[in-house]
Amino acid sequence: MTIVVPNTGEVRALTEWLTAGNLTLKLYSNDKTPAESDTAANYTEVSGGGYSSKTLSSGSWSIASGDPTVATYAYQDFSFTGATAAPGTIYGYFVVDASGILVWAERFEAAVVPYTPSTGKLVRITPKISVS
User: How do 62-64 and 69-72 pair as beta strands?
Assistant: First the structure.
């Protein structure tokens, strides 16, 4: 027998999940393709060049019911400053909860991996997650 979660249930699940507390958005610099068995320890967070992670406030998600139901957060800009823009390469981003538990990760598209930032450049991420 197959369980069906209607769109209203998907909205409820995402609402419960994304309003349980703030999440943190981080960029990663190791050549990693996300996998279901990953933990936050599998990702090397970017450092240097003016980088800092971004807090995703629990009450700021927009959830649209549908097939799939999608939760979206306003875009987040990461800018790089200084004489050199560390880390040298960026492969994607990952999101952790307040306990440091990996919630999800996404590798950038193959056409831009690895991304090498330079001073004055930015990386813009629109956090989004969908369920169906």
Answer: antiparallel
The pair of structure tokens assigned to 33 is 């393709």
Q: How far apart are CA 19 and CA 58, in angstroms?
A: 4
The C-alpha atoms of residue 100 and residue 85 are separated, in whole angstroms, by 26
Q: Which of 43, 48, 35 minimizes the C-alpha distance to 95?
A: 43
pLDDT at site 85: 52
Average pLDDT over residues 25-36: 96
Strands (E), the chain: 23-28, 54-56, 62-64, 69-72, 76-79, 92-96, 102-107, 122-125, 128-131
What is the rounded distance in angstroms from the CA atom of residue 25 to the CA atom of residue 19? 15
